């Protein structure tokens, strides 16, 4: 078969057209590809033909183009189409050059493209246009190496418009033997939140009825609003201040604005992820290894590439790129990057600014004063290797200010804080600390860690609110080295020296640590310390042996040479969620006495229940000297958009799960794993999932093993992105559980065979239509409908439609018989 015959067999892709003409209209401009000298007979038909041909960049498919083959063998297609395909492949400067050339002459030819490093030809054998782009002409492309794959838009279930919860935790002590015999007044700890319209009101309090002094103490109350667009949290009320460096955390009532990625966007990786560029002249295979582990293998066409988002670990990272081109040549590139957990990626910033009046906690609650106070800090990633920050504090009695830095270098990470202060009646002072960290990778699963710190403080240095400063040491120096010697043995050593002032003796210490795991279930650790201060030198040893009885239980024995204390401990953990429990018991003896203790916690569906018992005895475990038993409980009351439930205490966000009436009260299990679940609806008919984290994506799984046959549980899960202290009302099941079977007839009564259509609910036209299809006899079956009026619309030329009415009490499968078109039915 000839090439021309192959082209003509494209059927609908061929048409008779006039020959390409030169034009200055950019929308009509053409790319002209002159035929090769040996490509005679490309189009022997005697007329121009049109076909759709793929455009290839080497082996990469770029898209299709409508190509015209003239009678003389020239191929041409729209220049705008070529530029659109080339724009992401070559540099912006070269695209501009081609556009200028196109405007000047009204077309693009081979010579114009060759001038910017692009060769174009038409391949009559493959019926395709092939481009060869020089590596130096290609635009730099980014290749993401992180494990997080890009994905399309995600739809999350909306949280409740109004939600609230109250955690109630309590304890009561019974002293059988001791200075306060009898049952003590129960203590109740309260904390909760109300969320409405994106604003959260939260607070904490203590209550101890019958206790000496004040019964009720409010610990704090505040309003919080999260601006997710700018990742900023606004707070008003009793502030919870956070500090950096040498700062204190003063109790302030007022306003604050802050950004902490761990709270507002915990899924974002804020550490530097690394970027490296390289150029390929030929198609090549790239292997990327980090710390001797293969993280990605890529096949790339020629061009310039930026590798970014390396999956780095804390500490040193050894990166190797191995490039093998299509001719078999191999090149390797190595580089090292050291990352510290406190680094910020370039352009990212964290801050906390707190302003108001001093409000120390009193017996009844915060005591609001007229003393203004400010505390704040700001940190920014100046580059992927440098993070800088500043902090300041002030009140009516003094001020403190400082700076911080983190610098990542090939040899390790350097960090430092420096602060100055002035307190009325005390004077001025300063303090600084310098740290160094380095991780030395030995293999894929073993590494050594080296650290060093140097801290200095003057006598009068003091953050605000600290009272009279106490700085007994002017210089504190520390260093440590830890090594994983083998897969089962590790060892480390650290040393510390503190230079005393004002009569305070110097303190020197050196400590050696080690661990050995001779068997998978047996491990031994040791801690040997020598310390010397004003009382002289002394040697202490701490030894520990742990034997794992099974996956959930263990025995541990400890010996501490200080007071010759020995302890034997048993621990066991069983299950997660409802029905889980843990228990521990230990017995110890030392030179100052002996003791026996036991404690446990049971996690019920609606509460947490715990106990503990502490007993003390003489050294020989003979005479009892003290016995105390404590009983504890914790529960939560929760509400979301009118639904109420009781469950275990809520940590942050929560979800109330309830069954749809179609489930006939069947028990719903939430996040079931094996024979256990996080919660179940039970007798109350509602369940509480109390362990959702704000701004962290979560799938809540639901199942109802005893649901009626044919009940619709939907997808069996809800995808959530909870807001801070947010609540959800999740309904399992729906009315859309009816299956309908019937037959569609035409106006003359003949079956409508083999036609597709959809069923749309008249009361909810916004819902996705349900597809259906008729068989050769006109019969159809459709599932997922609800009681009510529906309209069936076929995809034939007349858009034939039918009315379908499902009775209110319809269940499972409904046979509706024959349906006629609406127009015929009205007649």
TrEMBL record:
Residues 1-21 form the signal peptide. Keywords: Signal. Transmembrane segments: none annotated. It comes from the Bacteria. This is Fimbrial biogenesis outer membrane usher protein.
